[in-house]
Amino acid sequence: MPSRSTLMIAVVIVVALGGFATAYINAIGGGGSTPTAFADPDNAAMVAQGQTVYNENCAECHGKNLEGQPNWRVKTPEGVLPAPPHDVTGHTWHHADPVLLNITRQGGQANAPAGFISGMPGFGEVLSEDDIVATLAYIKSRWPEDVRKRQAMMSRKVAAQ
Length: 161
Known about the structure:
The protein has 161 residues and is mainly α. The chain has helices at residues 4-27, 44-57, 59-62, 97-106, 129-141, 145-160.
């Protein structure tokens, strides 16, 4: 039979893990009433921060106006697709926030299907988590409202899983 102190330690660990899990779900928009509470395109300060980070780290490949590189659907001779647009003409909004944040942190290759070659580097060692989230908020702020709602709904579904 475990000692009383061992049981107390186990209870503290379980409660702490539950708190971390709840905080994470809330952070990605799964626990609050606002579907975009994590990367919030309606948060002016977050969007302004994200625009600065985007311009300094993303615009070189994804375009100053989120337009992506020319012929972004056609592989280069090396087998790599050019950087896609992040505006409504691209597919960024087809992915939930956790997926987009992981791609930004780890790079495209870490999240790519077998046989796919991605040129997207990871920024997890370069940018803070706040900068990555703010960048996504900025990108989302440029989408039409109907697209933002669909992407937010997808993000909620992923968070609920």
